[in-house]
Amino acid sequence: MKLYNTITGEKEEVTPLDGKTLKIYVCGPTVYNLIHIGNARTLVVFDTLRRYLKYRGQDVFYVQNFTDVDDKIIRKANATGQTASEVAEAAIADYFIDAESLNIIKADVHPKVTETMDEIISVVQSLVDSGHAYVNSTGVYFKVDSFRNYGSLSKMPLEALRDNAGGRIPDGEEKNDPMDFAVWKTAKPGEPMWDSPFGAGRPGWHIECSAMARRYIGETLDIHGGGADLIFPHHENECAQSECANGKPLARMWVHSAMLFINNEKMAKSKGNFKLVREIAEEYGGAAIRFMLLSANYRSQMNFNCDVMDAAKNSLKRISGSVAALAALDSETDSGDIRPEVAETARVAKSVFIDAMDDDLNTANGLAAIFDLVRQANTLLSDKLSASERALLKDTLLELTGVLGLDVTTTDEIPSEITLLADKRAEARQSRNFALADTLKKEILDKGFTLEDTKQGTIIKKK
Ligand code: AMP
Ligand code: ZN
To answer: Does the beta carbon of 72 lie inside 6 Å of ligand 1?
Structure first.
């Protein structure tokens, strides 16, 4: 599989450095409130990358952190009378609820800053010892001009970055160069703090990820991922600190997913233009959000609106309708041989899907391969398909959608075959033929649906 590496600007073959396990670190959310569907885009893209690599037989070790020490968490804690850790823990619990609705698999490790403080202090110490960072009464600062490759990730020379930054030094910081950044911030009243050789305080954001990556993966990551908004300054600074502390580049590949926009503006908490995963999932379901996010290539910006959600929901229904039709007819015909043309349909769909995903995780083309299969399955269904043929087509659909993390086994539409059986059962009951009614009920159950008899009539549900 090839992925676009931001640092080289090329699509490169994905290989594990150790020849066995591919080690991925993804910058996770800052935990102070519910995640929005922009955050979800980055999380779903990397979850899909992980699923796909595993599908192709690649062992993956996947780390996604929680930033649980941050100005925004502290502000919320002070505003609500909670501790910072109470704010963070509640947001982490909420994160897992939303991640589950998006079918995001838990990372192998979800490190937290508060649990990695020793490693953070040790990275800061080595930067100070090697002259890459300096200490003053306001904190410890990384000296950007001590790293000659500074700017290589964002493809901007230090001078250009300096011009863009405008030379402002934030209140309370004392820096030799406005481009230098805090790796340790001296304690202020009302803020959480940890003891360190540089005085009590808390880490800066960038150093947290450098330390969590080193602690849970090691000095070299195979892939460092995150949203494209993090390239500068967050990832540029991670690169600089880690390489200066460890003597080698932090990551072999840097992979960035493009931003989700709304009304042609980046969706962001700070802009107040965000839609929460929780609210959109309530209306459309988590699978439709996931589908919508995967319907564009991860490196293209995408714009969110209700139309894209309606389209995603309909597309998902088309796939699940086809799966249900292939499954529902199961017991009607004999099992039998698989004709070469049916085997070929399944084989081609799979191979087109793999080619698309191998080419820089092209989920849009991967979905197109799935839809081709749906179309052909529907056409073939109007012929007589043997049970083995139906099973092959259904299993191929389930396999490919499963790689994308899309659940297409539930549909709120009850297939007409089931409603027909339910009608027959109702007639049998009316004519007091209870033996037949029971047989029909069992048949419906066997096809994966339940019946609930109420005063208003019989409700059919998917098991
Ligand atoms: P944050 O909680 O802001 O640190 O963001 C958590 C993750 O979501 C990071 O990887 C960000 O790059 C990503 N992210 C934030 N906003 C968006 C957006 N509008 N579109 C895509 N990814 C985003
Ligand atoms: Zn990070």
So the answer is: no
Find all residues with CB under 8 Å of 418, minimum gap 6, and list them: 328, 444, 447, 449, 460
Q: Which residue has the tokens 């009464």?
A: 137
Indicate whether residue 273 lines ligand 1 (CB < 6 A): no
pLDDT of 144: 96
Q: Whose CA is nearest to atom 5 of ligand 1?
A: 29
Q: Which positions ≥6 away from 451 have C-beta within 8 Å?
A: 422, 425, 441, 444, 445, 458, 459, 460
What pLDDT score does 113 carry? 97
Nearest CA to ligand 1 atom 8: 39
27 lines ligand 1 (CB under 6 A): yes
Mean pLDDT in residue range 62-83: 96
Q: Could you say which ligand is closest to the alpha carbon of residue 299?
A: 1
Question: Does residue 330 surpass a pLDDT of 90?
Answer: no
**59 Cα to the center of ligand 1, angstroms:** 26
Torsion of CA 407, 408, 410, 414, to 10 degrees: 170
Ligand number nearest to the C-alpha of 30: 1
Atom index in ligand 1 nearest the CA of residue 260 equals: 20
CATH superfamily for domain 2-257: HUPs (3.40.50.620)
Ligand 1 pocket, residue 108 CB under 6 Å: no
Domain parsing of the chain, residue ranges: 2-257, 306-462
Q: Write out pLDDT tens, residues 276-329.
A: 999 999 999 999 999 999 999 999 999 999 999 999 999 999 999 899 888 875
Ligand 1 within 6 A of CB of 91:
no
| Token pair belonging to 280 | 């959109």
Binding site membership of 286 for ligand 1 (Cβ less than 6 Å)? no
Tell which CATH classification among 1.25.40.10, 3.40.50.20, 2.60.40.420, 1.20.120.640 matches the domain 306-462.
1.20.120.640
Q: pLDDT band at residue 418, thresholds of 50, 70 and 90?
A: confident
> For 30-54, what is each residue's pLDDT tens digit?
999 999 999 999 999 999 999 999 9
Mean pLDDT of the chain: 93
CA of 2 to the centre of ligand 2 (A): 23
267 lines ligand 1 (CB under 6 A): yes
